[in-house]
Amino acid sequence: MNIIRFSLIGLVSALFFACGGEKGQAAYLDPAQPVEKRVSDLLGRMTLEEKVGQMCQYVGLEHMRQTAAGVDPEEIEKGHANGFYPEFPPEKIEQMTREGLIGSFLHVLTVEEANHLQVLAAESRLKVPLIIGIDAIHGNALVKGATVYPTPINQAASFNPELIEKMARQTALEMRATGMHWTFTPNVEVARDARWGRFGETFGEDPLLVGRMGAATVRGLQMEDYTGQDKVLACAKHFVGGSQSVNGINGAPFDVSERTMREIFFPPFKDCIDAGVATFMSAHNEYNGIPCHANKYLIEDVVRGEWKFKGFFVSDWMDIERLEDYHRVVPTWEDAFKLTVESGMDIHMHGPEFYFGVIDLVKQGKLSEKRIDKSVRMILEAKFRLGLFENPYVKDETTRKIVFNEDHRATALEAARQGIVLLKNEGLLPIDDKKYHKILVTGPNCNNQSILGDWAMEQPEENVITIWEGLKQVRPDVQFSLCDFDWDIRKMDTEKVKQAVSMARTSDLAIVVVGENSMRWNWNERTNGENVDRYDLTLYGLQQELVEEIYKTGIPVIVVLTSGRPMTTEWIDDHIPAIVNALEPGGQGGQAVAEILFGDVNPSAKLPMTIPRHSGQIQTYYNYRFTSKWFPYATGKSTPLYEFGYGLSYTTYQYSEVKLSTNEIKADGTLTASVEVTNTGMRDGTEIVQLYITDNISSATRPVKELKDFARVDLRAGETRNVEFTITPAQLAFYNVDMKYGVEPGMFTVSIGSSSRDADLKQAQFNVK
């Protein structure tokens, strides 16, 4: 281990000239100057120490104090959530900020602290403002009082990029109103292992859907080029492969072929670059034996070389140091710093060791100052474009006006409505409140903030509508009874189960809310979320017993699932007549669940992932190659419990046969495929029409089908609409036997329907010359 050193005396060289005053004012302080000129002017005035300081990020002062006071040292070393620096208490960090030796902070959760840090930075020689980052994954939900939108997995279930862009735009406004400028989202890893605890932080298993939702998030956060004081930097993460790691463990190795990487895992990141994403974050894991934080092929050759990315890379939580102690590819931290910077890393998250190590490397001639300048130039450009030099502070009245305002709450509610999936309905839903007068509500997730999902902190009670509260709010005249459980699923009480069963016997109907707990403020009791990976996907604790015992009473039962990942609930699917997968619907989610249960809202969401019957089916995804299911399992069904793209409605839809504009095209040609979709039920609804392509014969094996487009279609009862898709060469191209990208001649099958399930698809074929 390197020994941490602290010596600020003598680090700052002679001043070039004064930064203030009207006469001779530095060009970088003049907002009328082009950004490029301001950056070059400022960079030319900086000492090596000030430059390297811009590459360093630290956790916030209050975060340090709270961690030092109450977190186990072993958790600090091994975890990804808490940090402080024993030899660098908050007072030393404040002094470094005053001296212009720190460029960025994260985990700063209040306006007061954000403004305080910016005041310190303004006391420095060059007055370079700080950029403050935060994991605003679904709203700025780590901040108390913010609008908490549904998690990304819910967002993906809406198949509505425009709505996701709107949520991201509002998130950017709330971030700037609380002093924050950079969010570590979207997570555009393609989730292919449900054991991985961060599944709900992603947009699911399909690269096209993940890419579209990720790009929409980038557009909402940054708009055209993130210039202005109402925009924030987005960050495409984690590059790459954490979502299909060995054993489903966060940060475990990732080993796949280049073909799989380029067909499945790369495309969403490229989509984010096309949308203008400003930053990238490397993944915890190693890719084919090379840690992503030291992988020059990934950072420089692919992202910057092939894809022409112009922004900067940030490390994930202490992962540069892990090149030495976890991955063991270097003997010392200083070697790790050298390797990662040479590989293209620009900002270190988090702590002081990197700062001193990089300065020593430059002074020893092991790193060039020109390489440091490359990183700092990009960081300074971001600060100028965000308007931080003109106004780094936030006013309380701005915060009160923007955060959790009525418009944002309405968007969160609409997003929840569009992201809740109806999985099964044997006529029990929507609930007939004239028939069912006494309704039992129970289960460990029926009346707490587990609906917020991961990457949220406990919110004011008045800001969160739990499912219990939503039911009472939506149907105040119904007689609801509550049998509440403690939030800790790991410690469910047998006596409480008996009480719920007893109450069920005197009820007309039971709504049982089960699932998982992602509550960050109860870090060690969670069953889902970051660093909470599982070797099975069954309902934890006594939840299965609770459902079965209430079912035995003979009253109708509705199960509501709340979890960020697929759960294996085969018994529930076999026995329970109505199942709603609410996923993690956010702060307004309880109202949305209640509206769907009672039919005030007609569900439209579709699964963005495949749900297996058993964890032994992992990996399970719809775009598999044929031979992966060549033989059936000997001990159970081989089919998934629910297919990707599946979701029911309170109305029904009928699809016509597929019509093609032509049956033959050239390799660079296009055609249109269309179907007529009719709402054959008695209610208005929204259908998500999905287009899949199959390459019938190919030089390298291809998936049985791939999602290539989708459309949300609003249909009144009895209405028919023609839905048309354009099929382009980009939707037919792939990497052939020689890893050359292009379209091969031959027959293709186009399938259009309501899910990826064969029974739900209409097909037609065309030939490519």
Automatic annotation (TrEMBL):
Biological process terms in GO annotation: glucan catabolic process
Gene3D superfamilies assigned: Glycoside hydrolase family 3 C-terminal domain (3.40.50.1700), Glycoside hydrolase, family 3, N-terminal domain (3.20.20.300), Immunoglobulins (2.60.40.10)
PROSITE patterns: PROKAR_LIPOPROTEIN
GO molecular function: beta-glucosidase activity
Enzyme Commission number: 3.2.1.21
Keyword tags: Glycosidase, Hydrolase, Signal
Catalytic activity: Hydrolysis of terminal, non-reducing beta-D-glucosyl residues with release of beta-D-glucose
Domain Fibronectin type III-like positions: 687-756
SMART domains attached to this UniProt entry: Fn3_like
Family from the record: Belongs to the glycosyl hydrolase 3 family.
Name of the molecule in the record: beta-glucosidase
